[in-house]
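Bumping with the actual sequence this time:
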Amino acid sequence: MDATRYEKLTDHEAAGRKYFIDHWLSETLIVSSGDYHFADLNGLIALEPDDTVVGLITFAIHGNAMAIVSLNSVRGGRGIGKRLLALAENRARMIGLTKMDVSVMNDNLQALGFFQRQGYRLTKIIRGSIDIARQRKPEIPFIGADDIPLHDEVLMSKLLVQPK
């Protein structure tokens, strides 16, 4: 049985901020849709019984869509990321949103597969967007996972079916 619990990010903001910085190298994430500062994001956090953070999803609202800004899990294969995403999608439906958006860096083959398995479709490739973001955030590495050069964003979307 999975003892992980999922709570509002604001309930554990300090732990969430540290986790975000550990994964994104600062309190700001820059993608083609904008600069996202941790303090301005909503989110959900996954905690072990001892309050160890094992997952985090952050999101922002843009019109009729919820944009997933970050989704990380440190315990692969346990369904933590999938559960955080499902909770975010349910929250989006409850407030009447009709679409989910996410931006994935071109090296993140694992995330591309994960989101497609959750029903997300490829919508656009923004060539050079990471190169532009790197000018404002030099911490962004030039080489990513599997020695793949980081240059582009892959945008993905999922239409949400509203409950009847």
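The tokens above came from a reply further down the thread. Residues 5-159 form a domain with the Aminopeptidase fold (CATH 3.40.630.30).
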